[in-house]
Amino acid sequence: MKRRLLDLGFQALALLILLLALGSLAALIADVWSDGASRLSWSFMTGFPSRRAADAGIYHALTGSVFVILVTGALAVPIGVASAIYLEEYGTRSLVARIIEINITNLAAVPSIIYGLLGLGLFVRAMGMGRSVLAGASTLALLVLPVVILATREALRAVPPSIREGSYALGATKWQTVWFQVLPVALPGILTGMILALSRAIGETAPLISIGALTFVAFAPDGLWSPFTVLPIQIFNWVSRPQVEFQANAAAGILVLLALLLTMNAAAIWLRDRYQKKLS
Amino acid sequence: MKRFEFVIEWALFLCALLSIGTTIGIIVVLAVETFAFLREVPITDFLFGTDWTPLFATPSFGVLPLVAGTILVSAIAMAVALPMGLLSAIYLSEYAPAGVRRVIKPILEILAGVPTVVYGYFALLFVTPILQRFIPGLAGFNALGPGIVMGIMILPLVSSLSEDAMQGVPRGLREGAYALGATRMQTSLSVVLPAAFSGITAAFILAASRAIGETMIVAIAAGQQPRLTLNPLVPVETMTAYIVQVSLGDTPQGTLEYRTIFAVGMLLFLGTFALNLVSAWLRERYREVYA
Fold first, then answer.
1. Exposure winner among A75, A207, B76, B175, fewest CB in 10 A?
2. d(Cα B221, Cα B233) in Å, to the nearest integer?
3. Under an 8 A CB cutoff, do A209 and B17 touch?
4. Whether the predicted pLDDT of A135 surpasses 80
5. pLDDT tens digit sequence for A156-196
6. Which domains does chain A have, with CATH numbers?
7. Any long-range contacts for A258-261 (C-beta under 8 Å, 24+ apart)?
8. B16/A27 touch (CB, cutoff 8 Å), yes or no
9. Which pTM was predicted?
């Protein structure tokens, strides 16, 4: 009897701890909402930075974020998908492929600020890109590449071998099989991985700060070589100021960022569900 | 036709090689600047010095205060994330009905996906003010608040990797324990946990590596005062926060100050890299046991 009670107590404790963790998420959202909801307005979305908190907006940062993410995706997705195709369909048993695999697992755990230092040394200085959108997006592309590769490999692995065999039986070459048969089937999985990778990139702050993305930019980026700021950096800038009014701006910025992330994740989940239905 | 196939395969291979190039790039960029830095500052001064004042007129480059700050905040984070993450994992793996798991796991994923700058805001403007009500001597910037919040941030990682490890334990072991009359708690703690030990350790180590490399929470909420202390109530500076601090200023390339961030980055990279390797090795090992 005592053992049963102990077991029940232990179960209650574990559940309580779990609910505490989930409760902290609720507390976070409630806190940010109560601090920042009153600042959300159309003029906040379309405004530029200002020394007066009440006039400041996030248009420049939001467009910066969207622009950087689009370029990041354009760089990371083709390279990541190609890497995954090689590892999964071509070089599966070779030693080089094994080394690349271990290396990707390791890269996925390297702190993001280290990628920032790589971007600073390689893209900003050595390749002379300066503190541009292209330098920032290249840095983020390297950062999310492991995510794209791992997700794509998983999607490719889920494609039934019979599809490949059918294609070979009809005389298709390896690339024809991959391009016309395997990739279309794996596409929803790849897209899900892409969205998850980009939603990681859109929240990243540290690597962009260390490549020297500016914390005070008064204009929206107008090209690949333009200086830029992104939403997380703008939030960081505001939260570091002592005035309560700017901290309210930070909270409002966070709400926009979270809404953006939620939309992207919802899209990923929707794709995943559709995909699962189709296969079963 | 054959030629085209050949070209495609090589193009794909080159893309895959880029990941190796990234690793080499990181090492080369960090090493070049670090060696330049070490030509001017003796390595013993850097590694064992107890004063970090690179921006002063008479600079001192002892990295220990930054290392101490990093370890302090990470230790607090681990003290939060380990017990909570492990208990969550036990609940999810051994107790929770499938329906509960389906609801809770995505919420944990959301917790893991919140941008760290948001956690920084939470640590500075929510957690620290609450803690100040209970701990009178707590400074506005401190190691405790960000440490706790960082613990919440890495909790999903600890929980999901530990749960994976526990799920990898064969059913037969559990059934044997139940057949002997053990409760679920006894089974979880005395059979499943020991059997999943190396996988859980791997999860802990990976979480530690994550905590050490975490940047925005500490840059926002822990302050920017490098000091050699284990007191969680006063402002400290971590290695990552220092890199952010220097990056925000306009540091000219080629100066000693510019190189310090690469030297600190090198130390950070080597530390986390070692932890990641140990973690990967442990995961590989437990996979072999139950394959």
1. B175
2. 12
3. no
4. yes
5. 999 999 999 999 999 999 999 999 999 999 998 899 889 98
6. 60-279 (1.10.3720.10)
7. A258/A29, A258/A32, A258/B114, A258/B118, A260/A65, A260/A202, A260/A231, A261/A199, A261/A202, A261/A203, A261/B113, A261/B114, A261/B115
8. no
9. 0.91
Both structure tokens of B33: 């600047």
Q: For residues B101 and A31, is the Cβ–Cβ distance under 8 A?
A: no
Residue B236 is encoded by which pair of tokens?
A: 């400290």
Mean pLDDT of A245-265: 92
Per this entry, what is the length of chain A? 280
pLDDT of residue A94: 81
Q: Cα angle vertex A257, ends A61, A198, to 5°? A: 90
Alpha-carbon span A270 to B11, nearest angstrom: 33
CATH topology of domain B69-239: MetI-like fold (1.10.3720)
3-state secondary structure of A227: strand
Stretches where chain B sits below pLDDT 70 are 286-291
Candidate from B1, B23, B30 with C-beta closest to A103? B23
CB contact under 8 A, A174 and B32: no
Q: Is A161 left (phi over 0), alpha (psi -120 to 50) or beta?
A: alpha
Reported ipTM: 0.91
Is A263 touching B (CB cutoff 8 A)?
no
Q: Which of B29, B95, B216 sits opposite A118 (nearest CB)?
A: B29
The full set of domain ranges for chain B reads 69-239
The answer to whether A236 contacts B92, with C-beta atoms less than 8 Å apart, is no
Dihedrals phi, psi of B234, to nearest 5 degrees = -110, 160
Cβ neighbours of residue A123 under 8 Å, at least 6 residues apart?
Answer: A129, A134, A135, A138, A139, A211
